[in-house]
Design goal:
Layout (H helix, E strand, L loop, with lengths): L1 H21 L3 E6 L2 E6 L7 E12 L6 E7 L11 E5 L2 E8 L19 E5 L8 E11 L9 E8 L4 E7 L14 E3 L1 E8 L3 E5 L14 E11 L4 E6 L12 E5 L5 E7 L18 E4 L4 E10 L10 E2 L4 E4 L1
Parallel strand pairs: 2-12
Antiparallel strand pairs: 1-3, 3-8, 4-7, 4-10, 5-6, 6-8, 9-12, 10-11, 13-14, 14-19, 15-18, 15-21, 16-17, 16-20, 17-19
């Protein structure tokens, strides 16, 4: 009977003293920066990237540690949805998530809507240490057409912005909202390089059907251009695929034959600006991007000339945009 009472007293003493051993534990976090790389405002695609946060704890007892990793809004702005990275006063929208699917925004105990990540760290063997690594998933949503080229950044450091709170526990893990001390801060940067970029698409030009080329034929086509805002661009049009053609004298060739019809392309409806590559009296068209699609009309003309053999006449020209 005496031995049993002694055993109960020792057990009670262990249960009381065990949490005190936890206060000797120290945890810290180290984060790598998240770089989205090149971001095109006109490509229409979401850009994803990731980084890591590694947590290391020392002086651990047999008790697990609840660690809460807080990520705030960053220096770019005050919102969690979206977060903002800055280039001067220019804003790029992005966000940081707890999963690769981007379903849960990673938050901080300073937010009532977006929570920090909670995880439990156990001692590794008998070394008194433990560690864990978390992945931070970042996304820049597509079609931010107002962006100008440049480097956009947002920094995270200090309390609520990049903060690790932790505590050892015996039975129930504490909620992150209740953990404010002890704490350890860390730092990292989110960055993106918005590039000058352009897309271009075209429609065909069709002069229709003609019997005798005794009068002028006209037709138009369209180039659809989207370039980064404030990005200067120029569009040159090649001489075409016809034998002996030049930017000053293009030719359509009869399908299955060698007969030709001469034609020309222009930048304006008055046919005073031959559209080419800057040689032989032609010029390339110049413009400035807005981030949104811009429609450019290509004016085409066939002047009266000797009528060749009947057939279908075609030519292929290449429009090249330089930015």
């Amino acid at each position: 009977m005496m031995k049993r009472a002694l055993w109960l007293i020792l057990l009670a003493a262990w249960l009381v003293s065990a949490p005190k051993l936890a206060f000797a534990q120290t945890c810290n976090a180290v984060a790598s920066s998240l770089n989205f790389g090149q971001v095109s405002p006109v490509a229409g695609t979401t850009v994803s990237a990731s980084s890591t946060i590694t947590i290391n704890c020392t002086g651990m007892s047999i008790l697990p540690v609840r660690a809460c990793v807080n990520i705030g809004t960053g220096t770019g702005g005050s919102s969690y949805l979206p977060r903002i990275a800055l280039n001067g006063t220019n804003q790029l929208q992005y966000n940081l998530y707890t999963t690769s699917g981007g379903s849960t925004v990673w938050g901080s105990r300073g937010s009532t809507t977006y929570s920090p990540i909670a995880l439990d760290i156990s001692q590794s063997g008998t070394t008194g240490t433990g560690s864990a690594t978390l992945t931070v998933y970042g996304r820049v949503p597509a079609s931010q057409t107002g962006l100008v080229a440049g480097t956009y950044t947002s920094s995270f450091a200090g309390v609520l912005q990049a903060e690790l709170n932790y505590a050892a526990y015996l039975l129930l893990a504490p909620a992150c909202a209740s953990l404010t001390s002890p704490s350890s801060t860390f730092s990292f940067t989110v960055s993106a390089n918005v590039i000058n970029d352009c897309t271009i698409a075209s429609t065909n030009i069709n002069f229709g059907t003609a019997g005798i080329l005794s009068s002028t034929l006209t037709a138009t086509g369209t180039l659809t251009v989207a370039c980064t805002s404030n990005d200067a661009y120029s569009i040159a049009i090649s001489a075409g695929a016809g034998s002996g053609a030049s930017v000053a004298d293009r030719v359509m060739t009869r399908s299955g034959g060698t007969d030709k019809i001469h034609y020309q392309l222009y930048q304006n409806a008055s046919y005073s600006l031959p559209w080419g590559d800057g040689t032989n009296g032609t010029t390339a068209l110049t413009g400035t991007g807005t981030g949104s699609s811009q429609s450019v009309t290509v004016y085409a003309r066939v002047l009266p000339q000797t009528t060749p053999q009947a057939g279908t006449y075609i030519d292929t020209v290449i429009a090249t945009i330089t930015y």
